[in-house]
Design goal:
By secondary structure, this protein is α+β, with helices and mostly antiparallel strands. It has helices spanning 3-16, 62-73, 85-89, 93-102, 131-148, 192-195; strands spanning 20-26, 30-38, 49-57, 78-84, 105-109, 113-117, 163-164, 167-168, 175-177, 183-185. It binds zinc ion (ZN).
Length: 199
Amino acid sequence: MTEKQMRPIVVQWLKKEGYGVAHEILISGYCDLAGYRFAERKDKRIPELMEVITVELKINDIAGAIRQAINNLYFVNESYVAMPLNRCVKMRPKSLAQFTDSGIGLLGIDTKVTEIISPNSDFRKDISWMKKKMWRWERNGYQRLEQKKQKLYPIKGKFCGETKNGKPCGMPAVYRSGGNYDHYYCRDCMPEKVKAKYE
Ligand SMILES: [Zn+2]
């Protein structure tokens, strides 16, 4: 199971729980998914933002996931990590304790979402600074995300530099990452956050 496969399952869960959904939203860093709830709209003004929760999608790297989730928790009411369910059930007690100790929730993902650890909730935080951002998602979030998706085409003469089973992947590259040196990725090996932005 990949982060890309987990995403729609977590989105459905958030919706079922009554949240609006925002993707790749800047909170402390970029957060994979956020659920938000607004008060009922009574006039032309943006209604009060009642609640924001975040979900970080991770295949493994428990320590990294918890670190990100703790950073989110400074700003939001509840913070979760979502991992494949088969990964969660094999998790050592010491790892599970890291979630409970830091107040981070854990969601196990297969075809549905299982809440393995409930997060601590804190509704006293000031989330009003996120109001406009979340309202934009409420008004046109999904459409915007779809429209923004760009098509990727093979880059002539370039091949994927990721390592698979100890060998270079070598598939035609479709994406070049910026930075100090060029790194090329094929469609399969692209980072999940890039995959989310392209088709
Ligand atoms: Zn590759």
